[in-house]
Amino acid sequence: MQYALHRRPEHLDKFIAVLYRPGKRNPNPESADWNGDVRVPFNEHRLEFRTRLLSGVHNDLEKLAVLTWYRGCRARLAVEFPDVFAEAEETTAGPQKAPQWERVLRKLSGGAFGPVQQTAAQPLRLILADMQDAAVDFQRLKSQNPS
Predict the structure, then answer these.
(1) How far does CA 90 lie from the centroid of its chain?
(2) pLDDT for the residue 25
(3) Residue 129 dihedral angles phi and psi, to the nearest 5°
(4) 26 part of a folded domain
(5) Which top-level group of life is the source organism from (predicted)?
(6) What is the torsional sign of CA 113, 81, 135, 3?
(7) Alpha-carbon Rg of the chain, whole angstroms?
(8) Does some domain include residue 90?
(9) Residue among 123, 128, 111 at smallest CA distance from 34
(10) Do 112 and 74 share a structural domain?
(11) On the CB side of 18, how many CA atoms lie within 13 Å of its CA?
(12) Per-residue pLDDT, 90
């Protein structure tokens, strides 16, 4: 999340635009393709438009409240999946870099989760559980074969 690294208001506006998307027309939990999300799917090509649209709607306190809520949710996921969200060591070389989630998505796609588009549509906890399992397996193999 760019806002955490640079504290620029436009990054917070973009983050808000990612989270707050329009609702689907007539969402139906009984439908075979229901995924639990009442929002329209994320579309990176509409992000700049949505960012401009929402930038003046919420005041700064509301935006910071959303950010605080998100950080709480992320902290909970870090507890549930500790090896996925292992804290990076802080360096004196500069600010901590954001995870390369696009790279992670590409690495996970093609296998159990299908192509990139299908992988991107999977429930977050399913993806994180798979990543947690892989991290645990890696640590186990690493401890069995120290170099």
Answers:
(1) 21
(2) 92
(3) -65, -40
(4) yes
(5) Bacteria
(6) positive
(7) 18
(8) no
(9) 123
(10) no
(11) 13
(12) 34
pLDDT in tens, 23-78: 999 999 999 888 888 999 888 899 999 999 888 777 888 889 999 999 999 999 99
User: What is the pLDDT at residue 57?
Assistant: 75
At 59, list the tokens: 């005041």
Residue 62 one-letter amino acid: E
Centre a 10 Å sphere on the Cβ of residue 66 and count the other Cβ atoms it contains: 16
Structure tokens at 129: 């559980």
Q: What is the DSSP letter of 39?
A: B
Q: Are residues 3 and 75 in the same domain?
A: yes
pLDDT tens, position by position, 95-126:
455 556 666 667 777 777 777 777 777 788 88
Spatial distance between the Cα atoms of 47 and 15, rounded to a whole number of angstroms: 9
CB atoms within 10 A of CB 119: 19
98 within 8 A of 4, measured Cβ to Cβ: yes
Q: From CA 147, how far away is CA 140, in angstroms rounded?
A: 13
The whole domain housing 131 covers: 95-147
The answer as to whether 74 is a domain residue is: yes
Instruction: Please choose, from the candidates 46, 57, 45, 70, the residue with its C-alpha nearest in 3D space to the C-alpha of residue 13.
Output: 57
